[in-house]
Amino acid sequence: MRQECSMDIKKIFGKHGDATAFVKTTVPPKITSSQKVALNRRGNVLFNEGDVEGARRIFEVTGYSDGLSRVGDYYKSQNRLVDALRMYWIAPDRAKSEPLIEKLAIVMRSMIREDEVPEYE
After folding, report:
1. How far apart are alpha carbons 16 and 25 in whole angstroms?
2. Helical segments of the chain, H only
C-alpha cells in the first residue's frame, strides 16, 4: 500500500517537470553544519543579487533566522505584509512580527466591521 502512495506522488509531481519546485514536508532535511553554512552563503549571494525567492527557499530549508528576517524586511518593503509576517514568525523574530500582527489585526477588524454594516436599498 505504501509503495502505491509513493508512485502516485511521483506521478502527480513528476508531470510538472519543474526542477526548481519544492515539495513541503514536515520533516526537515538532514544537513550537516558545513552544508548549512554553504547553503546560507549561497542564499546570501542570491539575496544580494536580487533573487529573494531563491534565497528564501534556502533560508527556509536551513532555518537561517537572519536570512529569513531579511527576506521578511524585503516583503514588508513591498507591502507584502502577510508574507513578511510568515518570514518573521519562522525566523523567529518576535520584535518584527508582533507589530505586524497588530497592524493586520486592525485591518481585519476594519474589514469585519465593513461586512457588518447593513446595506440600504
Report:
1. 18
2. 2-14, 33-48, 52-62, 65-77, 81-90, 94-116
Cα Rg, the chain, nearest whole Å: 19
Give whole-number Cα distances, 2 to 6, 7, 24, 110, in Å. 6, 9, 19, 48
Of 119, 116, 97, 120, whose CA–CA distance to 108 is shortest?
116
- Calpha distance 69→93 (Å, rounded): 7
For domain 29-116, the CATH class is mainly alpha
User: How far is residue 110's CA from residue 121's CA, in Å, rounded to a whole number?
Assistant: 23
Residue 48: per-residue pLDDT: 97
d(CA 71, CA 76): 9
CA distance 11 to 9: 5
Q: Write out pLDDT tens, residues 49-67.
A: 999 999 999 999 999 999 9
Q: Say what percent of the chain tops pLDDT 90.
A: 61
Q: Domain limits of the chain?
A: 29-116
